[in-house]
Amino acid sequence: MRWRKDIAYTGWGRALTASGRVARPVTEQEIDTIAPAFGNRRSYGDAPLNDGGAVLDMTAQDRILAFDRKTGLITVEAGVTIGALARILPPQGWLPPVMPGTGIATVGGAVAMDVHGKNHHNTGSFCQHVTALTLLQNGKRRKITPDRDKRLWAATCGGLGQTGIITQVTIQLKRCPGEVMVVTERRVEDWAEHIAHLDASDATYCVGWIDATATGPKLGRGILEEAEIGSGLAPARPKRRSVPLDAPSWALSGPVVRAFNSVYYHRVPATGRTVVRAFEDFFFPLDKIHDWNRLYGKRGFHQFQCVVPLDRADTLRAMLAEIAESGLASPLAVLKRMGDGRAGYLSFPMPGYTLAVDFPNRESARDLIARLENQAIAARGRIYLAKDGLAKGPSVKAMYPEHPEWVAQVMKADPDGKLATDMVRRLDLRRL
């Protein structure tokens, strides 16, 4: 296995960096060193980083190993992307059951974060549809299942890659009756209406875009999207554009963001509309802008995402009011209702409402995020580790009461800490 030395790399937020040795094994058999593994590094913070140490880039291991077209059971290598499956499988009548907001995420990463999608309220998290995993632990190959290895399974799903190097994943796909998305869009005037629509929706896929700059009676306004899979001619795949340079600091200044959000809000007619979209355009809207994270400039950005219980929606409203008053939010703000599906000790989902907002990497934004995290704790909620780069260990441990069970399994699987990452060290997750 060839190693490249002194390679600099980041997570998607680009606010935190690392450097060290990087190897990109093409096959599982090439892996001769136990080290933290990453895919396309779509986690925003330091989850995929190991500054000063070695890391394994798993993106070359991207083969489909087995696929039963009758049952929809598929086994893939960890480096296969969600987007690749979303392109390949629909003509065969199947679709990944859960897809995050980017198709560039790898299947291995989807397991390590137990990702969720726009259908979590009725479908649950990604790992609830995984039937088997293959791990490399201390150089030995081990296949595990949720029935036979319950505790190790729960520590692996959403477990930040700390129980072994994920090399193969078997997924139970969902039936796909067509190759397009039929999407109904409607304007939502304020917070109360947004929550009411989320509660009333019986659509398979449902997500709300929030204008995080709106204040006063417009607080919480946005666009609600409800969607179903349909049949018919798919629109042309959206052309990919790129951001060739790091944007200047004024590109996402308060006035610019407010103006963009107003235009974006009014793009949907007051009476609403129903449109047909390609799968990629609906599930992965930002993937058509290559390196969109460069819009935040050289300093990068942080995303805050939390979930609070259903009876604490007022806390989320208060958070949004503070965000709007700060003038720090970007155009990227999302509100969803979640169900009770989660597979692991550190899996993010819980029944409730989740809010995700991007902020440029500034001291004032970091201070705001710290306050928002404290509010999430007080509301018995939690933050999403796939997005975090700032939290403190005691806060995260308080949010995840099953953390001690996770520690017990991790210390059995990797007692020497060979798989520890910058996030694990920052949060001191391997200790109670």
Strand content: 25-35%
Strand order of the largest sheet: 16-12-14-13-19-20-18-21
CATH class bucket of the domain at 180-390: Alpha Beta
Q: What is the first-to-last residue Cα distance?
A: 35 Å
- Name the average pLDDT: 96
Categorize the overall geometry.
globular
Q: What's the CATH architecture name of the domain at 180-390?
A: 2-Layer Sandwich
Largest sheet: 8 strands, antiparallel
Radius of gyration: 21 Å
Low-confidence stretches: none
Output the number of helix runs.
Answer: 12
Measured as a percent range, the helix fraction is 10-25%
What is the total tally of β strands? 21
**By helix and strand content, what is the structural category?**
alpha+beta
The CATH topology name of the domain at 180-390 reads Alpha-Beta Plaits
GO molecular function, one term: FAD binding
Pfam family, one: FAD_binding_4
InterPro entries: FAD-bd_PCMH, FAD-bd_PCMH-like_sf, FAD-bd_PCMH_sub2, FAD_lactone_oxidase-like, Oxid_FAD_bind_N
Protein name: FAD-binding oxidoreductase
SSE layout and pairings?
Blueprint: E1 3-10, E2 17-23, E3 37-38, E4 54-57, E5 64-68, E6 73-77, H1 82-88, E7 94-95, H2 107-113, H3 120-123, E8 130-137, E9 140-144, H4 150-156, E10 165-172, E11 174-175, E12 180-188, H5 191-200, E13 205-210, E14 222-230, E15 241-242, H6 254-266, E16 273-277, H7 279-283, E17 289-290, E18 301-309, H8 313-326, E19 333-338, E20 352-360, H9 363-378, E21 382-383, H10 393-399, H11 403-413, H12 422-426
Parallel strand pairs: 2-4, 3-4, 15-17
Antiparallel strand pairs: 1-2, 5-6, 6-10, 7-11, 8-9, 8-10, 12-14, 12-16, 13-14, 13-19, 18-20, 18-21, 19-20
Helix pairs in contact: 4-11, 8-9
